[in-house]
Amino acid sequence: MQKKQIWVLHGPNLNRLGLREPQIYGHTTLDQINQRLTQLGESQGFLVQCHQSNHEGALIDLIHQAPSAPVSGFVINPAAFTHTSVALRDALAAVDLPFIEVHISNVYRREPFRHQSYFSDLAQAVICGFGPRGYELALDHLIAQLQPSS
């Protein structure tokens, strides 16, 4: 039986985790987050693939490819695109796959422009302020949704 796939999508500047503003984002690197998520998925019978891009179009192209991969759902940290990208929102709506929106920091304790998300109303859940652990919480929740009911 083929494992169900979940894609983790990281938006712009997240490749700089561990170096970028550690007082906000901590010292954990993106590679460390990705390794942990891959292991967590594997332990629950899922194939987790992680993708990061600083380019909106590259993320949109990945989302468009997901149904034929086939991907069962996403964990996505749109990063700065959270507040700006109607195009990324439209791509997620077009493929109609479940997704969890993640933010490392608590966006509601930050600048007012960060309080607006173009994704939250489409997301199954939104997790923010838990640091890198938020990705794990999101993955656990998505896997629970994708597991067959007993």
- Low-pLDDT segments: none
Total of DSSP H or I helical runs spanning 4+ residues: 5
Question: Major beta sheet, specifics?
Answer: 5 strands, parallel
What is the overall silhouette? globular
Number of β-strand runs: 5
- Give the overall pLDDT as a whole number: 92
What share of the residues does DSSP label as strand, in percent? Answer: 15-25%
Instruction: Name the helicity range.
Output: 25-40%
Please state the structural category. alpha/beta
Q: Supply Rg.
A: 14 Å
Question: What oligomeric arrangement do these chains adopt?
Answer: single chain
Biggest sheet strand line-up: 2-1-3-4-5
* Order of helical and strand elements: EHHEHEHEEH
- What's the end-to-end separation, in Å? 18 Å
Textual characterization of the structure:
- The chain has 150 residues and is α/β, with parallel strands linked by helices.
- The chain has 5 helices and 5 strands, in the order βααβαβαββα.
- Strand 3 (71-77), helix 4 and strand 4 (99-103) form a beta-alpha-beta unit.
